[in-house]
Amino acid sequence: MTDVLIVGGGIVGCAAALRLADAGLDVAVVDRGEPGREASWAAGGILAPEVEAHGPGAFIELMRAGAARWRRFAAELRERADIDCGYRDDGTLQLAFDDDEAATLAARARWQREAGLQVETLAASDVAALEPALAPPSLALRYAGGHQIDPRAAVRALVVACVRAGVTFVRAEARRVRHDGGRVLGVDGDAGPLDAAHVVVAAGAWSSLVDGVPLPRGAVTPVRGQMIELRAPAPPVRHVVFGAGGYLVPRADGRVLVGSTEERVGFVKDVTAAGLAALCARAARLAPSLAALPVADHWSGLRPASADALPYLGGTPVAGLWIASGHFRNGVLLAPLSGEIVAALVTGGTVPVDVTALSPSRA
Ligand SMILES: Cc1cc2nc3c(=O)[nH]c(=O)nc-3n(C[C@H](O)[C@H](O)[C@H](O)COP(=O)(O)OP(=O)(O)OC[C@H]3O[C@@H](n4cnc5c(N)ncnc54)[C@H](O)[C@@H]3O)c2cc1C
């Protein structure tokens, strides 16, 4: 009998496991694959609330609270796991290349300033001085506080920190969450029946497919994102750069990630010719010299999408059964905060932010 069983060892499940173990609970994570090898492995690791939000409200506030935790979280993981998560805070640029895009960016800067966010408006000459490799935009926004991490390193670090904190990892498919009389009993699957006082469903895009989870089947849907990795002798840009329908994430060692597609094609993780062509075109539009770089790798992952782009973080009508899923484009950014929220909900502690809008009951 475990205190808490977590279904899914992606970045969200692992962050929750760490915080629950820190709270003194006996925690096991059940994953059918290697922890962190699904959406969390595919992600760019951009921590940019200002780019992701399209207006003031619950979403941007949640994102800001989430992003604000990463500097300390990365330092904590370095300390607890001896693994560097590649935390960098060189800022984020968002570029417009025509009048319509420039008008959209100008409107974005207005509401963000009114909401108290730090945003600079830059002309093409400012961008050229900051990032000579970029194509000249008609207008750009700069978020000096924008940051990034390497999600693969972060999950590796989380798993090590979890193991050191006493978390058990079980390699098994969870087929059914077992409950009776309105109270959760455990999880049945490849590893046989596992009993627990609490079950947290953090199974990413597959969360509403596990039997016994009280979510409508389409509550979490997969949205494929394809990525390519270019390799440069030295980083061609410093900032994370958004524009031309995509983004560039420069790593310190010269790798440049180019993302990403958003495709609703079910649970299909193929990398397609059309996807690669689109990503290459976006990279070249943002920084023409990138077109000459070798493609070092390509992959895809399935974002777990809710209908309103907010995650599901909360309880269900079944006592002891919790949902931590639907993080869509921002599960890396929100992982440290989601871990805190889940631990507070399960232990009856103080939840760090207002989670009313995140209730799974809205599914
Ligand atoms: C191309 C791409 C780029 C992205 N870029 C960013 C970014 O820059 N910043 C950001 O914040 N977010 C980004 N995201 C989104 C982010 O990756 C996700 O929101 C996040 O990884 C979700 O984490 P998760 O733990 O919920 O899901 P996952 O990482 O998918 O983990 C779910 C886990 O559950 C396991 N599982 C599922 N079903 C079962 C079952 N029945 N039994 C046992 N195990 C099961 C899986 O094996 C998996 O390990 C990106 C996503 C993609 C695809």
What does this structure look like?
The chain contains ten helices and 18 strands. With 363 residues, the protein is of the alpha/beta class. Strands 1, 2, 8, 9, 10, 11, 17 and 18 form an eight-stranded mixed sheet that branches. It has an eight-stranded mixed sheet with strand order 5-6-4-13-14-15-12-16. A hairpin with a 2-residue loop joins strand 9 and strand 10 (183-189). Helix 1 (11-22) runs parallel beside helix 8 (151-164), helix 4 (58-67) crosses helix 10 (331-347) and helix 5 crosses helix 8. The longest helix is centred in the last third of the chain and has 17 residues, at 331-347. The two termini are 30 Å apart. The structure holds flavin-adenine dinucleotide.
* Unreliable parts: none
| End-to-end Cα distance | 30 Å
- Report the average pLDDT across residues: 97
Beta-strand content bin: 25-35%
What ligands does this structure carry? flavin-adenine dinucleotide
Shape: globular
* Residue share in helix: 25-40%
What string gives the helices and strands in order? EHEHEHHHEHEHEEHEEEEEEEEHEEEH
The computed structural class is alpha/beta
Number of helices: 10
Radius of gyration: 20 Å
Number of strands: 18
